[in-house]
Amino acid sequence: MTIFSPGAFRQQFPAMSDAGIYLDSAATALKPQAVIDATAQFYSLSAGTVHRSQFAAARALTEKYEQARGLVARWLNAADDRQIVWTRGTTEAINLVANSWLAPRLQAGDEIVVSEAEHHANLVPWLMVAKAAGAKVVKWPLGADRLPDIAQLPALLNSRTRLLAVGQMSNVTGGCPDLAQAIRLAHDVGAKVMVDGAQGVVHCPPDVQALDIDFYAFSGHKLYGPMGIGVLYGKAELLEAMDPWQGGGKMLTQVDFNGFTPQPVPWRFEAGTPNVAGVVGLSAALEWLAQHDGKKAEMWSQQLASLAEEQLSDIAGFRSFRCGNASLLAFDIAGIHHSDIVTLLAEHGIALRAGQHCAQPLMAALGVTGTLRVSFAPYNNLQDVDALVRAMRHAVDLLSE
Ligand code: PMP
């Protein structure tokens, strides 16, 4: 493992020289050269696809594709590689659970408890299946600390609760609820738990066994990997009990006009030609990450967010929605619309996000129509913070006139 050095880390990201001041890593991370090389090599040198052909190049690719499952399994401490299903991303992974696991088990009057902090990806699929079944989606409200209020959870769970949906880390506040406790409480009433790891996996890869997580989803592109590849982890007995959601090539062992026999897990959930380039790129990202001191890198991003928060707090009307020492900082400025600020910041080459961050219920709970959000990664540096603060002061001065 190499000792973390912000400068050396940054140099591995060619987009750093072109992306301006990139403070939008919570939306998607920049890609290190190692991932770019692995993906380019796949497209320039590979032949064939996986699980279909006998020629040597295709067999080698299949081996790589399956080995990558093992890398992800170790990353999450899953007991078995077959508990890793390739998906397009977090969104598709959650929709797979909603359609394949929950929908066939959901009865009218059943309940799904969803935290108020969720990204739409961990809310809308539950609303969709609940509507079809006549079930109810129950809100798990935020507490004063902007985390889903664990004290309120026991009263929301009961024998009708089929599932608890909760994010490991909010993409707005950066808050991490007490997952272990929430999972214990849900299991006490016999409910399963879907954890959205889209943000959390980057900052704190979970031990899915220690936490007793039923389902966990994440996207490759936030973890320095390519877009269009993601993962669903599921407990073996849950995946085994699930019918496929999408039908097509290679998800079955036999088919005729009377029906079909699905493949074993996980292949039954991977109909059609998969995103092999995505798997190759994600596996390169995990191998590359393993060479770095993730804890030190994370501390650096958190320090940058703290510094930005401290310096921005001198601006009149600044209000932060950050939880703890997250590397994300969502904020607003009283009396100035976030979209006006972001337009001016863009003119200074500052890339950040403004709006509702696909979390409208959370915005409502925070009492805002939207926020600005800067999200730091270990490739950011002190100059990025300076540039942000300078551009913010300038924008606020202009817009306050
Ligand atoms: N959940 C959270 C917390 C997210 O931040 C995101 C990405 N913005 C998603 C889910 C959805 O991820 P994807 O769009 O990669 O499927």
Automatic annotation (TrEMBL):
The protein's GO terms of the molecular function aspect are: hydrolase activity
Q: Give the catalysed reaction(s), semicolon-separated.
A: (sulfur carrier)-H + L-cysteine = (sulfur carrier)-SH + L-alanine
Q: Which UniProt keywords apply?
A: Hydrolase, Pyridoxal phosphate, Transferase
Family, per the entry? Belongs to the class-V pyridoxal-phosphate-dependent aminotransferase family. Csd subfamily.
Q: Which PANTHER family match?
A: CYSTEINE DESULFURASE (PTHR43586), CYSTEINE DESULFURASE 1, CHLOROPLASTIC (PTHR43586:SF8)
Q: Mind telling me what this protein is named?
A: cysteine desulfurase
Q: Which SUPFAM superfamilies match?
A: PLP-dependent transferases
- Whichever gene encodes this chain, its name is csdA
The prosthetic group or cofactor this protein requires is: pyridoxal 5'-phosphate
Class of this enzyme: transferase
Q: What is its EC number?
A: 2.8.1.7
Aminotransferase class V domain: residues covered: 21-388
Highest taxon in the source lineage:
Bacteria
Q: Which CDD domains match?
A: SufS_like
What does UniProt give as the signal peptide span?
none
User: Has the keyword NAD been applied to this entry?
Assistant: no
